[in-house]
Automatic annotation (TrEMBL):
CDD domains named among the record's database cross-references: Dip2
Domain of life: Eukaryota
One Pfam entry name: AMP-binding
Protein name as it appears in the record: Disco interacting protein 2 homolog C
All residue ranges annotated as the AMP-dependent synthetase/ligase domain in the record: 641-971
Length: 1037
């Protein structure tokens, strides 16, 4: 109990104290204190003799743990650091220079890995001071004198070591720990954890800092414990190595992180004869993270049958400034459950504690991290402004008053005063005590019985629109959306950037190489939807980058500040990006009042004075176009179909192909008319529906969907096309179908007999209650009689159909389409693409929403051309189906999606010669239009054009369209239009809402391809709205 340095315990007696596994041989090597003392004496002697007073040392990564210890227990103030080649090393180098570091101690293996000049000298790293590199291996040291013995000093306020801390902005600070604080901290840990002599402890953590240093090095030396140290590199090879050592040595204590528990869960099936009954304490170093509770519960659930007890799991909370803040004590009472709290996420964003039910998704379940350390006092203060004490139902920053803490930020007196000299205030304005408190950087509260609960960190706090969100909570939500198939679990970064005077959330993750672009975008959409529903906050940007491209920390995690800097510089080079400014930028100024119309003279004068012009463009006016369109005299599509059934009854409108390329089904004008009549009779007699009732059409892509749509028009009902649930993934896809049916208020559901059985199956009943579905009508068995009369709307502005879809942000949106707008839209596409009855058009699109639905179901009836329908799902079996159909039917115009084009590019890249031998000829293709609601993917379209150029595809034939949810075809490449133009703009100017054209190959250039001409009867205006440019499109009839 005397105040002496920890080194005095080394020579107490010979005892097996340290065992560490060598990564190269995977064989353990053990040290007794006597052996360690003799082998470390040369290093201790060298440090003592040659280091001048005030000289400081730097510890680089030690592969040999014993060498690190011999350097750490010397009399010279020191600290452990990571490799100078890692991310963020410049900021660490700046701190080393500030601390006056002149000597670097390292091992022989690490020394060999450093870059060297031709003369063998290690160069000075960028931002680092000039260092004297010294290898602490015995072969490089001389034997000390026999009478030499290390000087043992009393524990005083001299600096024992400096531990570095990386701040939120990337800067690195050095926290000084005195000798008295070090010794007191070891004594407090011994009392709290009940350490005794000769106990065995397995340490998986980094032994150079934080919990790994405090438990695995310092406290274990004090208590003469046997330490089993497992390096991180071995854990990556064998995640079960720490459990194996616990069983082999019957260890009493283990120091791990939640990631080590997760890895063990994944790999435990390969290991037998596991017995964890010897453990009395499993210290979870990152137990303060809210998402660590899931790893603890899952680990206990699996290994409880292997002897693990619930009371053994002991999460703790720590910080570089306050060292160990709190730790759950081991107990022998198995009937006493750990402390837990189910808190409302919405309440936490406002800094208050609101208990909620565990069944909800928008809750945060937190576990206690035990009691305050012995000899310490804790309080909770408001994180902003004056350090005023929080009320019992408020979340605040935890502050500690104790001897066993850090004392200052080295060389930064101002920041030291704000962190290490805090005096909490009462509501009356007076301090609660005369002793200063230390900010821990942890957000939480003190619960019943003095249990400490941590809900986040100050460095991870993001204040968006006045509400607080924690980065760890956002990561946990993203991880809950099936991340293993698309991204790497531990490679997700969440941070905030300042946009328009407020913080915006950015998520960056590393995408798996085997994940396709379509799958990744679906995962990104689900993540945005989950964050919006659980946290009620929008995500500004979600970016996926290739694997192993984000800057790493020494132990393989993501370097957050470096990643944020790359994002701000535009140097992330993502492979998939989803920007959603409209969902999170909600502080835009209100729109101005509508001003009177401006005449041409005023516009000209205003442009001359301000040097600006109004960006606008207009398509052709339908009223000025002379054509012989007989369908124009009809106001409704149902009337057009009746007219075609009378004038051209045997004309084929639709041809459906199967995966073998043969005709699966076809429809003439009269066949479609008669089938629509039978469906109308079924709706009125069996469904008992009336005019204006909504009907959900749940069909696979095919002829049945088209007939059901016109049957609804004949009966006066409003159809809603819905994608059917996937038979292999009912649990995920069926709730979306149910949501669309409920939101659209459908009175009836029409589908095929096969899907009817699927909806009533056992798997479907587990996802959606069968009793909640509206009446389901099977259209495979239709009545034979005709309706008494076909419904004719009284007003062209009445509702024709509803267009429902899930947007890229995960939001469900439905657009109302009137009969007048539908007819005008079909006529606009007919004139733009020059469609007439003798034409054949190949369509490979999903027919459930947007332009894909209009081309699949509506345009052929209005224009009279034959549509060759190719379901995109058939391309998974036969990737060449679409192109073979285009060649076989000598199609001149075809429409597809980016997913279809990507599938053909990847699946047929090596088959062009065989396709050419089979007679595939694309020379007749005049327009190949990609239907999308996004910026053209130039790389994909160019790859597609180059790949199939040898098969006759002309590069100018490939073009794109541009649409949105409320205007499905703003721009569409016409048959007589010029070649699509590509321009290059400066990305730096785009960040300032400006357009500056540059040459191809210029630095910071971004290629943009033309999306076609503005469609007929459309006016597009580019309006400056606050800090954003909004493209507004008006469809006139």
């Amino acid at each position: 109990n005397t105040a002496q340095d920890t080194i005095c315990f080394l020579r107490a007696r010979a005892h097996c104290w340290l065992t560490f596994n060598l990564v190269s041989t995977r064989t353990p090597r053990s040290f007794t204190t006597k052996l360690f003392s003799s082998q470390s004496a040369p290093s201790l002697c060298w440090c003592t003799v040659w280091f001048l007073p005030g000289c400081r040392t730097l510890h680089l990564p030690f592969l040999n743990l014993a060498r690190f210890l011999s350097a750490h227990f010397s009399r010279v103030p020191s600290s452990g650091w990571h490799d100078p080649l890692d991310a963020g090393s410049q900021q660490i180098g700046f701190l080393l220079g500030s601390c006056g570091v002149t000597v670097a101690l390292t091992s022989d293996a690490c020394h060999k890995g450093l870059p060297k000049s031709p003369t063998g000298e290690i160069p000075q790293f960028k931002g680092w001071p000039k260092l004297l590199w010294f290898v602490t291996e015995s072969k490089h040291l001389s034997k000390p004198p026999r009478d030499w013995f290390p000087h043992i000093k009393d524990a005083n306020n001299d600096t024992a070591y400096i531990e570095y801390k990386t701040c939120k902005d990337g800067s690195v600070l050095g926290v000084t720990v005195t000798r008295i604080a070090l010794l007191t901290h070891c004594q407090a840990l011994t009392q709290a954890c009940g350490y005794t002599e000769a106990e065995t402890i397995v340490n998986v953590l980094d032994f150079k800092k934080d919990v790994g240093l405090w438990h695995g090095i310092l406290t274990s030396v004090m208590n003469m414990m046997h330490v089993i140290s497992i390096p991180y590199s071995l854990m990556k090879v064998n995640p079960l190595s720490w459990i194996q050592k616990v069983c082999q040595y019957k260890a009493k204590v283990a120091c791990v992180k939640s990631r080590d528990m997760h890895w063990a869960l994944v790999a435990h099936r390969d290991q037998r004869d596991i017995n964890l009954s010897s453990l009395r304490m499993l210290i979870v170093a990152d137990g303060a993270n809210p998402w660590s509770i899931s790893s603890c519960d899952a680990f206990l659930n699996v290994f409880q049958s292997k002897g693990l007890r619930q009371e053994v799991i002991c999460p703790c909370a720590s910080s570089p400034e306050a060292l160990t803040v709190a730790i759950r004590r081991p107990t022998d009472d198995s009937n006493q459950p750990p402390g837990r709290g189910v808190l409302s996420m919405h309440g936490l964003t406002y800094g208050v504690i609101r208990v909620d039910s565990e069944e909800k998704l928008s809750v945060l379940t937190v576990q206690d991290v035990g009691l305050v350390m012995p000899g310490a006092i804790m309080c909770s203060v408001k994180p902003d402004g004056i350090p005023q004490l929080c009320k019992t139902d408020e979340i605040g920053e935890l502050c500690v008053c104790a001897i066993a803490t850090g004392t200052s930020y080295y060389g930064l007196s101002g920041m030291t005063k704000n962190t290490f000299e805090v005096f909490p205030m009462t509501s009356s304005g007076g301090p609660i005590t005369e002793y200063p408190f230390i900010r821990t950087g942890l957000l939480g509260f003190i619960g019943p019985g003095g249990l400490v609960f941590v809900i986040g960190k100050m460095d991870g706090l993001m204040v968006v629109s006045g509400r607080r969100h924690n980065a760890d909570d956002i990561v946990a939500t993203a991880l809950a959306v099936e991340p293993m198939k698309f991204v790497y679990r531990g490679r997700i970064a969440v941070f905030s950037v300042s946009v328009l005077h407020d913080e915006r959330i950015v998520i960056v993750a590393e995408q798996r190489p085997d994940s396709t672009e379509e799958d990744s975008f679906q995962w990104m959409s689900r993540v945005l939807q989950a964050i919006d529903s659980i946290h009620q906050v929008g995500v500004y940007c979600l970016a996926l980058v290739p694997a192993n491209t984000l800057p790493k920390t020494p132990l393989g995690g993501i370097h957050l500040s470096e990643t944020k800097q790359l994002f701000l510089e535009g140097s992330l080079h993502p492979c998939n990006v989803l920007m959603c400014p409209h969902t999170c930028v909600t502080n835009l100024p209100k729109p101005r009042q509508k001003q009177p119309e401006i005449g041409p003279a005023s516009v000209m004068v205003g442009n001359l004075v301000s040097g600006k012009r109004i960006a606008q463009a207009s398509g052709r006016d339908l009223g000025q176009i002379e054509d012989n369109d007989q369908a124009r005299k009809f106001l409704f599509l149902s009337e057009v179909l009746q007219w075609r059934a009378q004038t051209t009854p045997d004309h084929v409108l639709y041809t459906l192909l199967n995966c073998r390329g043969t005709i699966a089904n076809s429809l003439t004008c009269v066949q479609l008319h008669k089938r629509a009549e039978k469906i109308a009779v079924m709706l009125m007699e069996r469904g008992h529906l009336q005019d204006g009732d909504h009907v959900a059409l749940v069909y696979p892509p095919g002829i049945d969907l088209i007939a059901a749509f016109y049957g609804c028009l004949y009966a006066g009902c409003v159809p809603i096309t819905v994608r059917p649930p996937h038979p292999q993934n009912i649990a995920t896809t069926l709730p979306t179908v149910k949501m669309i049916v409920e939101v659209s208020r459908s009175a009836c559901l029409m589908t095929t007999q096969l899907i009817c059985k699927l909806l009533r199956s056992r798997e479907a009943a587990a996802a959606v209650d069968v009793r909640t579905w509206p009446p389901v009508l099977d259209t495979d068995d239709l009545p034979k009689k005709r309706p008494a009369q076909i419904y004719k709307p009284s007003n062209p502005e009445t509702l024709a159909y509803l267009d429902f879809s899930v947007s890229t942000t995960g939001m469900l949106a439905g657009v109302k389409m009137s009969h007048a707008a539908t007819s005008a839209f079909c006529r606009s596409i007919k004139l733009q693409c020059e469609l007439y009855p003798s034409r054949e058009v190949a369509i490979c699109l999903d027919p459930y929403c947007g332009l894909g639905f209009v081309l699949w179901c509506l345009c052929s009836v209005y224009s009279g051309h034959q549509s060759i329908l190719i379901p995109p799902s058939e391309l998974e079996t036969n990737p060449a189906l679409w192109l073979l159909a285009v060649s076989q039917y000598k199609v001149r115009d075809t429409f597809c999606s980016y997913s279809v084009m990507e599938l053909c590019t990847k699946g047929l890249g090596s088959q062009t010669e065989s396709l050419k031998a089979r007679g595939l000829d694309l020379s007749r293709v005049r327009t190949c239009v990609v239907v999308a609601e996004e910026r053209p993917r130039i790389a994909l379209t160019q790859s597609f054009s180059k790949l199939f150029k040898d098969l006759g595809l002309h590069p100018r034939a490939v073009s794109t369209s541009l649409g949105c949810r409320v205007n499905l075809a703003i721009c569409l490449q016409g048959t007589s239009g010029p070649d699509p133009t590509t321009v290059y703009v400066d990305m730096r100017a785009l960040r300032h809402d400006r357009v500056r054209l540059v040459e191809r190959g210029s630095p910071h250039s971004l290629p943009l391809m033309e999306s076609g001409k503005v469609s007929t009867e459309r006016r597009v205006k580019h309006i400056f709205y606050g800090h954003f440019f909004l493209s507004c499109c008006l469809l006139e009839q």
